[in-house]
Structure formats: C-alpha cells, structure tokens
Design brief:
The chain is an alpha+beta fold. The protein starts with 9 loop residues before the first helix and ends in a 12-residue tail after the last strand. The chain is built from one helix and ten strands. Strand 3 and strand 4 form a beta hairpin.
C-alpha cells in the first residue's frame, strides 16, 4: 500500500493565496475608510474650534462694550466712545469702545479702555477667500479705528468665512434690528443694545458650511456720565 506524501497541492496553495489576498484587500479597504473618516472628523473639529474661538472672542469683547458722555478733548461734539454695527451681504461690520483692553507691559502708555473693530477682507494669496479680521487700539483716541491709518493691532481670527451676521436687541421695542449706530443723531446715540446675537458660518476642509450661533448680554447698555457735577 503506497503511503500518501504530506503537503499541499498547487491548487490548494493557489486557493489559499487567493483567500488570503481577498482578506487582506478587505482589511486594507476597511482601514483606509477608517483613516479617512478619522481625518474628516479631525479636520471638521479643527475648523469648528476656529469658529468657536472667533465666536467667543467677539462675544467676550461685545459683553464689555460701553458708552460715555464725555467728548474728545478739544471738541464738543465728537464722542470718545461709540458702537457702530453695519449690515453687509457677507461679513457684517462692528466697531465699538470697550473696557476689555489688557496691558501686557508695566507702565505702558495704554489704557483699560480701547476700541475694537471686526470686519471682513479678501485674502490676496488664498484665492480671494473672505477672512474675519479684528483690530484693537491701545487706548481711546481721536482717530477712529475705522481709519486705515489709525494705530492698532490687526489680526485674523477666522479664515474662509462665508457669513458673519450680527443682530442687536432693542430693549424698548423688544425687537432685533440689523444695524446700530451711536455716531448718528438719527440712530441710537445714548444707549447700547441690551443683547447681541452672532451667527458665524465658515467652510470646513471639504468645502461644506459649518454654522455657529450664540448671543450675549451687554453688562452696561445705558450711557455712562462721568462728567464732574
């Protein structure tokens, strides 16, 4: 009786290789899908963090906005403080005085009060995408911060912005309005909105819109009068 030799036939080896290749391909495809999903989630979270930080910065600044009855030295009509919010089709403009300036150096010629501006500009090197800019002065000054030559610290707080919409709550009429200008006699020269609502839409890495929305109360929406009696 002939004894059968141990081992695999060529067909069995080829079948085993085919099965192993199929399993490897499935595992590779599954791992690639997992890596892509992880990357997409991480990129979306990174963009969400950019939008959230920008929102927090705006809301924190607006919360400390204030108006004063004092005028700029040497004038009787130009107020030292203001709150101007303008509606635009893409990024709304907001410029105001506030109590939130931080002095980083001892005995520096700066103040706790300053002016802040938020506005949108197209980038030169990123395909004309809209960026949200913030500009802050070091003290209240005669030159308005909307003047391009006015001194101040300029920074981008969010890139590739689709929309920034800011609304203001009128406490007497109890309604939301699109604009608020204390620098105009026919506007609201003597008070601030009691609440400000911010809607920010930025694009994520896949080109999809990522919306964020929040609102904040202004602590001192009544005009301050610090003139001596």
């Amino acid at each position: 009786m002939r004894q059968r030799q141990a081992g695999f036939t060529l067909i069995e080896v080829l079948v085993s290789i085919g099965i192993l290749s199929s399993i490897t391909a499935l595992l590779w495809a599954s791992s690639q899908g997992t890596f892509r999903t992880k990357k997409n989630v991480e990129s979306k979270m990174a963009r969400y963090r950019v939008g959230r930080l920008a929102m927090d910065r705006i809301l924190r600044d607006v919360q400390m906005a204030y108006l004063s009855g004092n005028s700029i030295v040497g004038t009787d009509q130009t107020p030292r403080t203001y709150f101007d919010g303008l509606r635009h089709s893409d990024i709304d403009e907001l410029r105001f005085s506030y109590f939130g300036h931080q002095r980083l150096y001892a005995e520096s010629k700066e103040s706790d009060t300053a002016t802040v501006a938020y506005f949108g500009l197209k980038g030169r090197n990123d395909g004309g995408k809209l960026n949200l800019w913030r500009k802050e002065s070091r003290r209240l000054q005669a030159d308005r911060i909307d003047n391009a030559n006015a001194p101040g610290e300029l920074e981008i707080i969010a890139d590739d912005v689709v929309r920034l919409e800011i609304s203001y709550f009128e406490p007497v009429r109890k309604e939301w309005v699109d604009t608020w200008r204390t620098t105009q006699a026919d506007g609201r020269p003597d008070k601030l909105p009691s609440r400000v609502k911010v809607k920010l839409v930025i694009r994520d890495e896949r080109g999809e819109d990522l919306p964020l929305q929040s609102e904040v109360r202004i602590a001192m929406f009544q005009k301050l009068d610090t003139k001596p009696n």
